[in-house]
Amino acid sequence: MKIVIPGGTGQVGTILRQALTTAGHEVVILTRRPTRDREVRWDGETLGPWAEEIDGSDVVVNLAGRSVNCRYTPANLRAMMDSRVRSTRVVGEAIAAAARPPRAWLQMSTATIYSHRFDAPNDEATGVLGGTEPGVPGYWAYSIDIARAWERTQEEADTPHTRKVSLRTAMVMSPDRGGVFDALLRMVRLGLGGPVAGGAQYMSWIHDHDLVAAVEFLADRDDLTGPVNLAAPDPLPQRSFMRVLRAAWGAPVGLPATKWMAEAGAFVLRSDTELLLKSRRVVPGRLLEAGFAFAHPRWPEAAADLVRRVRGDTPA
Ligand SMILES: NC(=O)c1ccc[n+]([C@@H]2O[C@H](COP(=O)([O-])OP(=O)(O)OC[C@H]3O[C@@H](n4cnc5c(N)ncnc54)[C@H](OP(=O)(O)O)[C@@H]3O)[C@@H](O)[C@H]2O)c1
User: Domain DUF1731 spans what residues (predicted)?
Assistant: First the structure.
């Protein structure tokens, strides 16, 4: 297959590019700064010669969007919104204009679209979308607005010959530098990987190999459209999640952090506490129903596998 990946230079794109190329597919990346073979320039906003790559391709996986790992200032939130909506809109325009449109458009979305809740897991059928939860900082609703606008932009695209799926993806756990697993492991190595603000908030996650397999599965199946949760079936409270990771790494202690310590740490790291404090309890209802088999469904085994790969004991 020819697979075009707008925004494919980041963490998720690097994982997909490597795996899909190894599987024998032709992969083309759309980026604002091409540096490598099979990278094509676009601006994420306007149609250009790059659209010729989409015409005649088999699948588009759009990942583009300003990183969410930043302070949620008004300017950054606006950039997070605009980069997602505009890039999704223009991908839709390129597909609409194609003489031979791709058969599938897998559009990145986020598990963060669901409500901050502890009581029950969110699947696609019964899950509650967030934005009106009491007792959370008002600006958290903006992340939900972004996610909804992102999905709406894909829904509104007039691409009748292309199957559209939105990937409500949980945190992608991979052994490479700069990803979320790397950041969590760094805390563990410093002895800081304990519960944050009590640690009752759920962490949803997906192992990188399952992310790739799910993307291939969704690209191949011609009957699935709309939102699909890309999350392992085993979300767990942050304190348990970190306890398992400490055990996998062999770290004896993990100091707890209060909400205020998390605020200070996030400030220093130019990140935002929403990433740590929001309860994301998301499960893969539609993937399981469709017969997708997770290779790494449970966190203890997945964490052990990732630690082995970080230590170089098994191939990445
Ligand atoms: N990583 C996760 O765990 C995770 C989980 C759920 C959802 N997601 C979502 O999945 C997508 C990819 O995640 P990632 O971790 O790979 O992100 P990333 O490392 O930040 O990469 C995102 C890519 O988007 C492009 N981009 C950034 N700003 C842009 C703009 N203004 N206009 C057009 N393109 C822009 C960049 O490509 P160039 O600079 O090369 O143009 C960048 O490589 C993101 O939308 C993210 O929100 C990620």
Answer: 272-306
